[in-house]
Amino acid sequence: MTGDGVNDAPALKKANVGIAVHGCTDAARSAADIVLLAPGLSTIVDGITTSRAIFQRMRSYALYRITSTVHFLMFFFCITLIEDWQMSAILLILIALLNDAATLVIAVDNAKISQKPDKWRLGQLITLSLVLGTLLTAASFAHYYIAKDVFHFDSEKIATVMYLHISSCPHFVIFSTRLSGYFWENIPSITFIIAVLGTQVFAMLISIYGLLTPKIGWGWGVTIICISLGYFVFLDFVKVQLFRYWSFELTAKLWPSKTRRTKLQDRKAYAINHARIVGNISKVRKVVIMSRVLLAFKKKSSTKAIEV
């Protein structure tokens, strides 16, 4: 409901979304949910577009943050219990700082605007975060044991390898969590790209030249970055497939609740009723077609009889 006068105030108050247009009275302004500060109704479209972009950025941040947290906690908790190995505090602080620097630029990202109204799908969000976090943890264990058992690195050099891996592999995932499709379907902003890649260059230089930790050289540094890029493409494919085959029924099974079960039953009943209606319409259509065919044959037979 849109309005600008005193007589519109009751309707604006009762409407689901009351919009007071530019130059409205104080009564309409106080009763409305949204007040337009520019003339015309095109501002409503701008408001919807901006709000959907904000929602996409919030969703991207939540998915990336939960994924990186699951990966970080799961790996360090398990590796501490299994191998009694720890990373130095300075490297952990650097990982946290670079992680925060990468997530801050989500606010200026080129978000993809949804064509339909958005809503939080927490079951889908948590499940996808757990899947991506678990796969990242598996990659971290692979890096650790390859450096330890295959190349026989000491504990400090392993810390350098793991620092570069943890600073690069999860950070590249932020390009995937931006949207539900493949990462190349929407190009991020220049500021976003520079900030994320800048953190990778900083972490790689520290690891290669050993500024705060034993150096591993260009060979290992470039190899770890390339592996992180390849693994990022694999995780993006997993994300797309999960989004593609996800359904509300799967959400209700994985994260059951009374509300979801009731909603699922209502959807199934609606689907059955809709299928029945479609089937009845199809039967009626077939009967009508057959009636027309029989009528045409009958008319043709009558014409031949008259000619004879």
Automatic annotation (TrEMBL):
In the UniProt record, does the keyword Methyltransferase occur?
no
Q: Which residues cross the membrane?
A: 62-82, 88-108, 120-146, 158-177, 189-212, 218-238
Single biological process term from Gene Ontology: monoatomic cation transport
SUPFAM superfamilies from the entry?
Calcium ATPase, transmembrane domain M, HAD-like
What InterPro entries does the entry give? Answer: ATPase_P-typ_TM_dom_sf, HAD-like_sf, HAD_sf, P_typ_ATPase
Predominantly, its location class is membrane
Where is it localised?
Membrane
Which keywords fit this entry according to its UniProt record? Membrane, Transmembrane, Transmembrane helix
Task: Work out whether the entry's keyword set contains Amino-acid biosynthesis.
Answer: no
- Molecular function as annotated in GO: ATP binding; ATP hydrolysis activity
The protein here is known as: H(+)-exporting P2-type ATPase PMA1
Cellular-component GO terms for this entry = membrane
* Native organism: Rhizophagus irregularis (strain DAOM 197198w) (Glomus intraradices)
